[in-house]
Amino acid sequence: DLNMSFERLTSNKAFTNKLWNAGKFVLQNLPSESDYSAWQALGGFK
């Protein structure tokens, strides 16, 4: 028996989305001569 609530799932989804957006922001603001392999790796998780 799992004790899950819709409110908790919604808040966890919002938190995960914030982490995703923070990661995208950091990777988009790296200098242009940076290695973009990390960005390509993140793109595979969508």
From TrEMBL:
This is Uncharacterized protein.
